[in-house]
Amino acid sequence: MLDTTSNQATLTFERLELRAGRGVRQFYAQQAFQPVWTTSTGWSRPATQALRVLAAAPAYGLSPQEYKWAQLQALADTLARTQPAAHAPLLAAYELTLTDALLRYALHLRYGRLQAATLQPQVYDSAATLQAAQHLQAALAAPDFAQAFLSCQPTGKAYQRLLAAWHTRINMKSPDSVAVLDASQQAEFRSVAINLERNRWYAQAKPDTAYLLVNIPAYRLDVVGQGRVLRSHRVVVGKPAQPTPQFDARLYFFTTAPEWRVPSSIAIQEILPQLRRDPGYLYRHQYHIYNRQGQSMNPYRIKWKTITPENFPYTIRQMPGPDNSLGNVSYYMPNDYTVFLHDTPARKLFAQPQRAFSHGCVRVEQSVELAAFLLRRSGTPDRAKRLEQAAAQSWTKRIDLPRAWPVHVRYYTCEAAANGLLRHYPDVYGLDAPLLAAFFAEVPVATQMPPR
Fold first, then answer.
1. What digits encode the pLDDT tens for the residues 206-218?
2. Known catalytic residue at 342
3. Residue 368 belongs to domain spanning
4. Is 152 a catalytic residue?
């Protein structure tokens, strides 16, 4: 039965409801198709360690019942109720079930259970399943199985700090042990679980050592370097009707006193109604309007009553100045959403506790100071000084970074605060509810965790 390359393997997997079939085959091929977890009398010592790891799944935002923990725990009782002649196939079934559970647990810890875009179950490619099988094999050979097995988790700062804060919250003693959660911990478990999941979606094989992280629900931008937050800035993000997306980009240069090329959606939805009432609106706000050939147009000579959202043929640009929507500096970071970091003249909004007011871009408090800091941090203090001077004098200048800075825009409603404790944020875009529904659709929550 352990020869998972035989013609009966597929039938065996279906009967046992195994979901990591390819990985199970690869694992036992490495073991010469010999049992690892079972002996003639029940579980082996490695299996006991493995079961403890599965039992501690709530400490990592997952549920033991997803991995058939209760069923696996029943092996001894099942053997006692079964005739000796039936023990061999029974032990083989438990052997395969535990391997399948551990492989799926490793994949979930590394990549997450769900797909970020659809919230459907993850589909793992052959490389990921092979890596999981090899990882399980390596953990078996390690002096500390639990520590070695759990090393498959993301190593990024946000994930590790959230995990540590959760372990502090539940008073975790060791990697494979966790106390039964009380009522308040059970409530927090759901929030921690989905935010660990979000972190796994974006985990990098080699995390960036220096980067900018925008957490949308926290309304905050952090500059991270060598595993610590170097400085933080308040931000204004997209309103719920025009949410800031989650994405990765690279920041290449800054533009001081930038010109704003108004997106067509804003031009049509917000500026066109103003122009139909008063074409002088453009001049009062330092806007220029151009036709499709790029020629500057006189707004007073346009018959605005004949212009509709469907036939709007113009582009609008806002000239540099104190009222420019991009403020004193913009950050060039190409991405599929045309979303950027920039300054703003509406600085009073940074004093608001809830700051979802933009059309999707991220407005950054003290943007000039942040840009100068990044230039100095990159080893170019002379460029930082040029940027500060240009911004102060409203000169339009491009200032390049010597190397691009990674920018990560994320949505975490729970994270670790500076004091190492959990911190929760309002779900400004309502993204928690569908993720919670999908994540806990079939799996019991941590209240079902077995007592220790």
1. 888 899 999 999 9
2. yes
3. 210-414
4. no
